[in-house]
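User: Okay, second chain of the day. Same drill as before: sequence in, structure tokens out.
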Amino acid sequence: MASDPKHRPVYVISVAAELVDMHPQTLRLYERKGLIRPGRSGGKTRLYSDRDIEHLREIRRLTQELGVNLAGVEEVMRLQHELDDLQGEFEAEIQRIEGELRDQQARPQALPAPDGHLDPRDRPVYVISIAAELVDMHPQTLRLYERKQLIRPGRSSGKTRLYSERDIEHLREIRRLTQELGVNLAGVEEIMRLRHELDGAKSQLEGNVRRLQDDISDRMTKWRTLPTTEEAASADDQAPADQDTETPGRHRTR
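Assistant: Same drill. Structure tokens below.
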């Protein structure tokens, strides 16, 4: 993440506040609530990045355009930070695997094989009546949430809705946001969109890592089957004599 210029802290608080049309005290409040995470200079001066500016503009959109309360904004920004952190973890994992690949070229070792199994939480198993009972909601409410793309149940071959454990988790999260935190539906839509994006990003990260591990395993197998320098030299020493060499006890035909 540090290599991404969007994350480089460059703006002091007065400039950042001017860029997003907010009072500096508002930026301090948002930082205390964990909505933004500005960097610090060597002298502990707050420094905001372009990514922080994007987050502040998103906060303003949520509050002013969508009417999302502060509790909802906190949920949105927490998920956004998770996405940012996940991207950082992905880049770090790529660097680690590339380093491991370089090490393996010098000293090949077997790598653990990725399982490649589908997360059991994503397996669609519950019909709508059971899912509604599990989350204490009316089935019609689940249909409404699906139309708004807050949840995305699977379908059987007969087009029957089937909900997974992850869908149940999402439905319970929606109930918490609306009933406990008082987040309006617009805020819930933003939060669940980010949740789906985060789930997809995690799956993509895991898939990319598995592909890289498969690639490394394939290379390790090829390297292990290649003859060493000593083996190649030994093979040369044991090669048949030149066909033109005279066979003992026989005369060449001229």
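The chain has two domains: 1-65, 69-112+120-224.

User: Thanks, on to the next one.
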